[in-house]
Amino acid sequence: MRKSLLLILALACAPLWANAQIKIAKLKYNGGGDWYANKTALPNLIRFCNENLNTDLEPAEDFVEVGSPEIARYPYVYMTGHGNVVFSDQEASNLRKYLTSGGFLHIDDNYGLDKFIRLEMKKVFPELEFVELPFDHPVFKQRFNMPEGLPKVHEHDGKRPQALALIHEGKVVCFYSFESDLGNGWEDQSIHNDPETVRLAALKAGANIIEFAFSQP
């Protein structure tokens, strides 16, 4: 029988979140980019995970600033947007501390984020480069089998969707969904009028990322 993800999370992340409610949060950053985009995305993903993964996540998303010590309350932090991103030295240091202490950052390019986030994540991990995860990576073999990797929700530049990662000491600390637009797929159907098959594929991918984030050693 599949273990409860909450049990796995408690065992894996007890030093960081032992006395906290299990919540996930959207990252608030400076630079003028719309960090608040996709307002219905995380609540819908949370609901999907609670219904399909035996999680008991708080139904509402939280918001947390890059430089806040409160970021340590969240085992999974989601970042999205279309525009500019700027991390101060203090924010980059705080984000690195969070990620090397057991935290997990999911960056989801909502189109236009890529050229900014690559530069800013270099402030966080100057020694690391984003690498593409192969289709046989464990993130694609969680509750839902995804033999072709991330789904394509919306077309932007004719590029294929990629699952990129920053790997620190053998652990994925940052997952970057590029040219996939998962967050748009998580949104209420009435917002983008995506087919239900596309929305379901996006939600399954998001659930896999959550499960992977909670259960990796």
Automatic annotation (TrEMBL):
Positions of the DUF4159 domain: 23-214
Keyword annotations of the record: Signal
Listed Gene3D superfamilies: Domain of unknown function DUF4159
Signal peptide stretch: 1-20
InterPro entries: DUF4159 (IPR025297)
Domain of life of the source: Bacteria
Identification of the protein by name: DUF4159 domain-containing protein
